[in-house]
Specification:
The chain is globular, with a radius of gyration of 23 Å. 31% of the residues lie in helices and 27% in strands. It has 481 residues and is of the alpha/beta class.
Length: 481
Amino acid sequence: MTMVIQTKRKELTSVGVDIGTSTSHVVFSQIVLERNENSRSEKFEIKERKILHSGPIHLTPFKDANNIDFERLRDLLLNDYREAGIGVSEIDTGAVIITGETAKKENAEWIVTSLAGEAGKFVAVTAGPNFESVLAAYGSGAVARSAETGKTIMNVDIGGGSSNIAVCKDGRVEATTAINVGGRLIATDDSRRIIRLEETGKKLAEAVGLNLELGQELSEDAQDRIADVLADALIESMQQVQLSRITSRLMMAPQLQFDSRIDSMTFSGGVAEYYYGCEERVFNDLGVSLAKAIKEKVTKLNLPVERPEHKIRATVIGAGNFSLQVSGSTTFLSQGLKYPLRNLPVIEPYIATRKPSSLDVKNAIERALSRFDLIEGFDPLILAFNKSVRPSYENLREFVLGVVNALPNTVKNQAPIFMCFDADIGNSVGNVMKRETGIKNELLSIDEIKLREGDFIDIGEPIIEDVVVPVVVKTLVFISV
């Protein structure tokens, strides 16, 4: 795939779709890209973005208690296209984020095809609980604020079925976890008869002495009791304390582990709309009661809560955009790679020293993989290293041993290994890795491109002397709604 940059400015129409097990939302945006004249890689940068149309928040339709009705959901979202006056063929790029256990990757591709017409333009990803925490932290503005203020900020995104927690420091996500605490674990009709009862909600009710069934009336007192227990569990999961039996059962990921002192906390997600008094409508669920219970406990504990920069209702409200970059000329490419490489999620291991041991590198990669709920050796990905290693042979040898030790299934399955560096050491890393480890994997080690965690990239076939490759970077752009 050969790409030649001839324009200095380009306007893109972008759509972002967030499909959750509780709510779904679509946002249309206009993104203006301009070429950086000072960049030898001719990369494009976002100079302007504005919302063209924000669709309403839909309660995600279900066929039954466990399965989303994707046909009905597609019709709802395509109606949002019509309301926006934007045709499918007019979309240049976008992101479809599907969250929740009932949303499978094959469904993601089907939704992409239905909504975009051409899946190649779209990022399509199913977000596990830890990745959902990362996305929510970016979407709320907590990551950016941590970089701007130097504060360590905890963002807690409280949705319909889960709460996703992220600790943000120095412009990155340091730790994540998730817990089954949400506003729509139980929902009723206008007569307070239960019409939705998640298994988590049913078991939680049993734990506080309530036996709930579909069609049964849910009293206000019972609703408040359940909300109070959920709030206790959420507050407990936000701290590094011994977890109670109920909280342990609700956890969806390992408990938070971080060293920094939390300077401030922000809440995002649907329940946060009630927490900050931004929503007056009620949806006959636990949302209002849960927000009230959380606020009472936060006040009692005197936790340092602030408003998020961006007020969002769903886990991810963003739009995909892309910019074209070109790798440096010191790239290592195996001859057996097949191009283009599509939608590789960027995983950024954080290494504290530029002279890391192989164990430092191995541990950093394993931590990064866990944040994104990826299965090493089976899920395609690219490792992005920024200021990670000094280019001496001994340092590179330690570095590549750490990379290989962190990817045992990848090596065993002989799956390709993809790496990206912000400095011009890609070829050196590739050569040392092949020489010192003896791996048989196909290898791509590109350089002089700075990627960040949360990006997705496409890589085209070499365009200059078989070493320089074009890279399309698709970034999740989060916008206040």
